[in-house]
Amino acid sequence: MTSENEYLGQGFVESWQRYPEQTALKIDDDIYTYADLGTRSLAVKEILNSEEISNTENVGLLSAKSIGAYAGILGTLFAGKAYVPMKPDHPIERNKRILQDSKTDVILVDGSGIENVLPIIQEFGNRIVIITLPGVDKQQQEHLDGGNEFETINVTEPSSTTRNPDSGTYPNIPSDKTAYILFTSGSTGRPKGVPVSHKNACAYLDHILERFDFNRSDRFSQFFDFTFDPSVHDMFVCWGTGASLHTVPEGKRMAPGSFITEEGLTVWYSVPSTARFMSEFGQVSADSYPDLRYSLFIGEALSGRLSEKWQKAAPNSTVVNLYGPTEATISITFYEWEREVSKGRCENGITPIGKVFESHQYRVVNQSDKEVQQGEEGELLVSGPQVFHGYLNRPNKTEEAFKTIDGSDWYRTGDLVQEAEDGVLKFISRIDNQIQVRGHRVELLEVESVIRDIVDKEMVAAVGWPVEDGIAQSIHAFIADEKNDVEPDQVIPYCSSELPDYMIPKEIHLIEEMPLNVNGKIDRDQLFDRLAEDDMSPDDGQ
Questions:
Q1: Which of 45, 105, 130, 308 would you label with 121, given CA atoms 20 to 30 Å apart?
Q2: In which element (H, E) is residue 379 found?
Q3: What is the reported pLDDT for 537?
Q4: Secondary element (H or E) of residue 120
């Protein structure tokens, strides 16, 4: 058990001090001790604190899950700066917006990001400094250096990895300073930056480390991308315990059953969709994962059927449903599956999201922001030390996201819930136009905005379809094409250049007229009916 955290990297440093030769990270067949990873992180820190770039506040990270990337995250935190993760395979325009909105002028790049970094930064003049992380080979470095006008600095492999942390490893910074910035889906086609402070993140870590009996013998999965905030849990809960972190290979992310058993994992953490895919591949059969002690799920609705099935597959495991928006720092409610009880507590077949963490407050309110009676449906509002203070440079969006009640600010989750007599919350649905796709929160208005740009038409609607156990499997888009001048084959490639893969519509449907309801709004129920009819075939006996 670690002491209370004051800044995000503190737990790692304490484990490094206590267990320098303990495995901290395993990537494929490569094993790195706490001393290995810590020493590499100090090399990054020293460059970020060098005179020429010491004034930068936010540090971009364009990388895969490499040793350089993990050292980059820790080194950035050790330098007292915030890391801003970007995915190399995300659209260039999206990564450009992230750089622009976060005012990032330093980017850490590993081998996977070399090919993409120059197109991303070419519009920023020479104000961007590129720092190449260990693992970039000579050919990649030559590609980067070949005729570009940007300054590059190389982080070299340390000659020795036996260096120990000292008092100077900790940054002397206030707890409300930003630790990392993540970007969520936005309704105007522009992602929203969510700055999370050390105070926010440490409130989460302290709660999780107090609640669970993790220990240095545990083996944690590292499933989530750095751009997805559960990755913060992956890393810092594990390292705050002195345990080892095992990165899930890209080729096994859809069906990681063999990875769980081969690595001897004791803690699994993923989106429910992964468990659903595993089930389809026959990887969630009884007693499949007897070594698991904890199975944690987050990011989308978790069906009761899947909870029950996973419990049988991991009979010695505590199955936990975690819930929370990025704005409330990873998760803010907790529900532990109980074999004899929980199935009967599911609403619409969905596992409850449970109780709000201690030291946090919540309200369930109606459309007039008045608290509803227990058992009635309403929007969940939350307040407390994990809740962020506002979107990056988006005051209007921040104002929309919060409600002031009795002098306190409450974050509107946008989720419809129902509270049971014992305080357990049941998730009902989203109350706006957001859905969950493959564990990612998606604002459908963003998808619609991108499509409107290419077809130059206003009547565009995107919906999640099909929906199974409360989870959208993909996105379908409808376009009212009264002039018959839209080429569907051109729409999806354009979306691919603007949106991450999980937001790209699976199919474009052209219709003569967009259905509207009595309020003049798009009637999405009629669109769902169309999709259901399309799915029927004579082979189905319909």
A1: 45
A2: strand 377-383
A3: 47
A4: helix 114-121
> Are residues 147 and 206 part of one domain?
yes
The residues facing 427 across adjacent strands are: 417
Judge whether 255 lies within some domain.
no
Q: Mark which of 247, 263, 289 sits at the end of a domain.
A: 247
Distance CA 435, CA 447 (A): 12
> Which residues 6+ apart lie within 8 Å of 121 measured at CB?
99, 107, 128, 130, 150
Q: Looking at the structure, tell me whether residues 139 and 167 fall in a common domain.
A: yes
Give the percent of the chain with pLDDT over 70: 94
Same domain, 220 and 82: yes
Query: What tens digit of pLDDT does each residue of 74-125 get?
Result: 999 999 999 999 999 888 888 999 999 999 999 999 988 888 888 888 877 7
Instruction: Kindly state the average pLDDT of the residues 309-324.
Output: 97
Q: Is residue 395 part of a domain?
A: yes
Q: Is residue 252 part of a domain?
A: no
Residue range 164-213, pLDDT digits in tens? 787 678 788 899 999 999 998 765 567 899 999 999 999 999 999 999 99
User: Strand locations in 36-174, DSSP E?
Assistant: 58-62, 82-86, 106-109, 129-132, 151-154
Taking Cα atoms as reference points, which of 213, 227, 223 lies closest to residue 260? 223
HSE-up of residue 102 (Cα within 13 Å, Cβ side): 35
**Residue 518 pLDDT more than 90?**
no
Q: Is residue 269 part of a domain?
A: no
User: Are 333 and 440 in the same domain?
Assistant: no
What is the domain range of residue 475?
A: 436-540
Do both 337 and 361 map to the same domain? yes
Provide the 8-state DSSP code for 443.
E
Instruction: Please list, residue by residue across 16-43, b when 16 or more beta carbons sit within 10 angstroms of its beta carbon and e when fewer do.
Output: beebbebbbbbbeeeebbbbbbbbbbbb
Task: Find the angle CA(386)-CA(390)-CA(392) to the nearest 5 degrees.
Answer: 120
What phi and psi values does residue 80 have, to the nearest 5 degrees?
A: 80, 25
Question: Please, which residues bridge with residue 33 across strands?
Answer: 23
Of 399, 430, 461, which one is at a domain's C-terminal end?
A: 430
Query: DSSP string of 387-403?
Result: S----TT-HHHHHHHEE
- Which contacts qualify for 357-366: CB closer than 8 Å, 24 or more apart? 357/207, 357/332, 357/333, 357/384, 357/386, 358/207, 359/203, 359/207, 359/384, 359/385, 360/332, 360/384, 360/385, 360/386, 360/387, 361/408, 361/410, 362/425, 363/405, 363/410, 364/417, 364/418, 364/419, 364/425
Say how many domains are in the chain. 3
Q: Which tokens hold the place of 354?
A: 């449970």
Same domain (yes/no): 60, 159: yes
